[in-house]
Amino acid sequence: MNTFLQHALWGFGMLLLPVAGGMEAAAQEWRDLSTTRRVAGEERVDLQVKYGAGRIVVEPGSADALYRMRLRYDGEIFQPLNQFTDGRALLGVETVSGRISMRRQGSGGEMDLALGTAVPTALVLEFGAVRADLELGGVPLESLELKTGASESRLDVSQANPVVMNHARLEVGAASFIARNLGQLNARSLQVEAGVGDLKLGFGPLLQEESKASVRLGLGSVELSFTRDTGVRIIRNTLLTSFDSEGLVKEGNQYTSPNWASAQRRITLELDAAFGSVSVVWDR
Amino acid sequence: MRAARSLLVRVSPLLGVLVFGTFLYLAGQSAGDLREVVSSEISVAGSESSLRLEFRDGNDVEVVFRSGQVMVDGREEGSFTQGGVLDTAWRSLLGQAVALDNGSIARVFQEWSPPADLEDQESSLAARLDQLLEEALQTSPPSPQPPQNPGSLTALDGIPLGALLSRAHRLPALAEALEGLSLEEVRVEVGRSVSVDEGEQVDGSLIVVDGDVDVRGEVMEHLVVVGGELRLHPESRVGGDVRLSHGTAGLRDGRVGGSFRNLGTTDTSFSPEAEEAQEESRAEARDRAADDRDEARDRARSRTTRTGSGFLSPLRHVGAGLAGLLQTLLSFAIISGLGLLVRHFFPQHLERVSQTARHAPGRSAMVGLAGVVLFFPAWVVGAVVLAISIVGIPLLLIWLPALPLALAAGGLLGFLAVARLVGEWVTEREVPGLEWARSSNEVHILVVGVGSLLAALAAAHVIQMGGPLLGFLRILLHLLSGLVMFGAVITGLGAVLLSRAGREEHVGGSRYSWDDDPTTTQEA
Which pick of A39, B39, B104, B171 has the fewest CB atoms within 10 Å? Predict the structure, then answer.
């Protein structure tokens, strides 16, 4: 919950100024920035993206580039982040130090980021109040950390991650979050922490034979979807939460799919929810 | 690179040296037709457009059109007209480059030609810019021109340029240390310690970066130490200034012809060693602070023990009781003041809430209790409902503070309403000492009511002055005070809810006429 509060407050803070935006009518200084970094012998890269407000699209790019970023931002309030040192990159925007403005800062800001498909990447995405559309299919991800505040985010992994990921962590604040094909992340373990919101987590076909996942929800609803051939076991630890376990056999606090013993790919999911509802659905 | 440019600007004698060395360095890195661009950054805004290319050899070139000035690598090359032909052509070029990958970017900039219809001033600037871009992108840059200051070239001998440039983090400190110094002849040592033994003489100035300096002999001109320990022995002689930056003066003696300036005693620049040393220093400081806290705590404990058993003990109880009494009086004054304001601006609301609490105290208490219990879940659920949609999030910003504020306001209004009832009851009883308070005076009623609700708390503090023997009674009074306050707030809050904040008259689920209220009629 602390994580949720941090991100939710961050997101609310980003939204605080838009509420009072009507008080100031000064013109915005829109700037466009385009940057590309080619692969220059890097064996891996740590990529951190910070984006506070606006719309962000992340998608796979070309093999000869580490990343390509296109930004549109209000230069009166934000300044771009475009740093690369020794295989560590920091991209996105940050507020101009010491600048306080009452104008609408999130509206109109855009960021398009294309990630290279050749160099293994440790990716950290930190969003505030954004609309995020993330397609990570085919990007070689060593690790993934996604932190969102008050956002509306969609994550899809349409192609398999070519490298094995040890751990993926998704921290969702107050948000609507839809994820598809999480199994294609090729992650040994997946951790989802949600504060308040509406989550749809689609695992799709799994790449790992044995996967572990944990979902922690403060308040809201979660829909978990799996393919029919996936062996699913859910360990439930909930409080004041309805649980629709369609197609699962209950044994104590464990809910197991009938094909658990024979399934080639299995996932064990620990569910920890306080208030809300959880439902399990099966992909057709 | 920025730090290096800063140094180049500030230190004129070394300018030529560094430019020359950088050109040599660039010349040694060439391969192929065009230099390989590893990173490009193109920024376009209303008043500014810029290009930054980073090459595989680590060097970069930056061209900025800003506020009518064209800057190349921080140098002003000329001026242009915003929105003019050159500006438009440059933006068009950047627009083309945005859509291309890096290999093509280099080609585009190399092949760029300035527009033909430029005016004289912009035409020469555009030609120079074109030339600069081509030179920057060529794998074999043209032979560097000799620096203008011939004196600087003589200083090139023996300067470990590579080592100096590899310590980019030292360059700002070095630039600061060299500021204002005239360096005719200079010996530069980087990354190693230097000893000037007795009888030895350094002609000109001595600059040492990241190395210790031990001087027993003579430095004819200036001595500059950045990031090292300086030891000036009694027999040492320095003809000019001594500048020490990010280092320590282990020994300061001898004769200095100019001034001695220590520009910073702590090495704050980044290096693993410095970081480690700073961490150790911080750890020591933390330990010392912890020790100091423990010592202070022990002293305080010891002092408390001594005071508790000493002859000042009664005074301590009197002081504590007096402080509590003053706090209670202050609370009384504030609440009474607020009550008078409410009475002045919302007399009917206060009256209706008060009547509701009078006619339905039990129901008011239950409703108030339910309101407090349900407040938090209602607050959270409302927040969730608003938070799960982007549209509702701005409303969330109002919802989050508004509900607690509304609860606090309701609690205050309810407390005042109950205080008013209590005040009425007390003033009608002609309590000794309160003969001055008239039951027909609303101000008297309110003040007496608030005072009555706080009386138990005040009495507890008065009892506290009597010392520990009456401690049990004091605790009882505190409990009583807490119950009274809680009951007043809960009952009042319930009355506020039942009467819709005093806008309606609700008692026991049935409405009653304001005019029919016997109390109101009597007062009228």
Answer: B104
